[in-house]
């Protein structure tokens, strides 16, 4: 499914890291990324790395440590059980090609900097593509993440040569030091809910999504459980009565095959209306508001919409809440596309 990151030697209690791995595994997360050469890491790094590797093995999670050339021999002496070794700085093309033929583990290359010319050279040197994974970088410094379009083009290339791709999303609640600015691959994801950034990566051809930060909250882990590429799961902050709004929002909706220019229209909503919709919260419809037509709209009563541009208040239209945090996904919804709602705990 997806993955998490664990950072030994970075001030997180070992028992908290191990518990986090258990919680993630329980929710279907299958990968663990870690780094063994962070400059700020303390002296407990190697002891904690060994415990993390042991825990990953017991949970059936695949461990991928990130290492530099200077740390390679030390890492091998630890005898960690690993799935793949992510090669950071210091490795020559010849060394990368040689390591790709290892029978002990796969190697993982940085998809954000590996272009077609570099890959052609590695293949000419004997790189075994069947033993290679590609994973984009994460960017701790604000404003330095790559664009979604750049990532998508790189992903398209790697798919064309039979390689699956991975990338990182940040946590909003458990950001890693020393900057605490989040660890995204795509800069646009730095301050949006992981539920959205994960799906946005998937729509850009990313096969496996990893939390870059440690430790993501339980709510964040839960929000990713069961997401799928064919149904957009949109976060919504409610402004209406919970029980009524949940009734209108539940289930899977489809944008009409004749899509409106200004709104997303749910095909199913009018057919599943169970009771009269009385006027309530008939205020200005800001972009990405989620609305339902009330009984003043005649045969349109019960139609659920997501507004794509600012529209004025209408006494026939109730505001249920806002999905503004899901705008990256909403803007990609086309004719017939499926979507569902994930209700956030905080209100508007």
Can you describe this structure?
The protein is α/β, with parallel strands linked by helices and 348 residues long. The chain is 28% helix and 20% strand. Strand 1, helix 1 and strand 2 form a beta-alpha-beta unit. The longest helix is centred in the first third of the chain and has 15 residues. The chain is elongated and about 75 Å long. 42% of the residues are buried.
Return Rg in Å: 23 Å
Which spans have pLDDT < 50 for at least 5 consecutive residues? none
Morphology:
elongated
Mean pLDDT: 93
- Strand adjacency order, main sheet: 1-2-3-4-5-6-7-8
Total beta-strand segments? 15
The end-to-end span amounts to 31 Å
Taken as a percent bin, the fraction of beta residues is 15-25%
> Main sheet?
8 strands, parallel
List the secondary-structure elements in sequence, H or E. Answer: EHEHEHEHEHEHEHEHEHEEHEEEHE
Give helix % range. Answer: 25-40%
Number of helices: 11
Structural class: alpha/beta
Which characteristics define this entry?
11 helices; eight-stranded parallel β-sheet; 15 strands; 28% helix; alpha/beta; 348 residues
């Amino acid at each position: 499914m997806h993955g998490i990151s664990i950072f030994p030697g970075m001030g997180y209690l070992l028992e908290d890291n191990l518990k986090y791995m258990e919680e993630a595994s329980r929710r279907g997360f299958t990968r663990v990324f870690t780094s063994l050469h962070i400059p700020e890491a303390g002296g407990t790094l190697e002891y904690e790395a060994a415990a993390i590797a042991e825990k990953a093995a017991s949970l059936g999670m695949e461990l991928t440590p990130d290492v530099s050339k200077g740390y390679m021999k030390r890492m091998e002496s630890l005898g960690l059980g690993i799935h793949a070794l992510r090669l950071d700085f210091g490795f020559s093309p010849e060394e990368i090609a040689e390591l790709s033929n290892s029978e002990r583990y796969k190697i993982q290359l940085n998809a954000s900097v590996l272009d077609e010319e570099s890959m052609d050279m590695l293949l000419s040197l004997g790189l075994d593509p069947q033993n290679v994974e590609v994973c984009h970088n994460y960017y701790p410094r604000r404003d330095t993440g790559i664009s979604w379009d750049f990532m998508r083009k790189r992903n398209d290339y790697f798919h064309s040569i039979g390689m699956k791709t991975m990338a990182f999303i940040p946590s909003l609640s458990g950001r890693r030091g020393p900057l605490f600015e989040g660890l995204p691959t795509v800069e646009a994801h730095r301050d949006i809910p992981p539920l959205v950034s994960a799906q946005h990566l998937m729509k850009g051809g990313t096969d496996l999504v990893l939390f870059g930060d440690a430790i993501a909250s339980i709510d964040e882990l839960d929000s990713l459980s069961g997401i799928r590429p064919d149904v957009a799961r949109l976060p919504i902050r409610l402004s209406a009565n919970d029980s009524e709004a949940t009734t209108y929002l539940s289930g899977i909706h489809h944008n009409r095959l004749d899509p409106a220019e200004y709104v997303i229209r749910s095909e199913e909503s009018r057919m599943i209306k169970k009771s009269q919709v009385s006027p309530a919260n008939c205020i200005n419809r800001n972009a990405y508001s989620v609305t339902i037509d009330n009984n003043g709209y005649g045969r349109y009563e019960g139609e659920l919409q997501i507004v794509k541009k600012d529209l004025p208040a209408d006494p026939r239209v109730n505001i249920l809440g806002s999905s503004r945090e899901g705008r990256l996904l909403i803007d990609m919804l086309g004719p017939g596309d499926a979507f569902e709602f994930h209700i956030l705990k905080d209100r508007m």
